[in-house]
Write a structure and sequence with these properties.
Elements (H helix, E strand, L loop, with lengths): L11 E2 L4 E5 L4 E6 L2 E4 L2 H8 L7 H11 L5 H13 L3 E2 L4
Antiparallel strand pairs: 1-5, 2-3, 3-4
Organism: Actinomycetospora straminea
Pathway: Cofactor biosynthesis; pyrroloquinoline quinone biosynthesis
Subunit structure: Monomer. Interacts with PqqE.
Length: about 90
């Protein structure tokens, strides 16, 4: 299956979505209208780089430096799922 997320795209959180540290859960969470998504550390790292400045390729490369094994398809699949919910915007520059 071909990804719809371009490697040159520069993802950013949608205006109505915020990432915050939840003290009670001791985890990063994604906050949207009537929605709270508890993130695992890798998901939080990916979204922490979704600032509109880093391309998808940059994010994959940076995660490769942080972790032993990063699968490009897993990162793009994660971003694709969030984009389909309109929590992440991925313009292709």
């Amino acid at each position: 299956m071909t990804s719809t997320v371009p490697r040159t795209g520069r993802p950013r959180l949608a205006r109505f979505v915020k990432m915050r540290y939840d003290k009670a859960r001791e985890r990063q969470v994604l906050l949207g209208p009537e929605t709270v998504v508890v993130l695992n550390p890798t998901g939080a790292d990916i979204l922490g780089l979704c600032d509109g400045a880093h391309s998808v390729g940059d994010i994959v490369d940076e995660l490769g430096r942080r972790y032993d094994r990063v699968v490009d398809d897993e990162v793009t699949s994660f971003l694709e799922r969030l984009a389909s919910r309109r929590w992440v915007e991925i313009p292709d520059d």
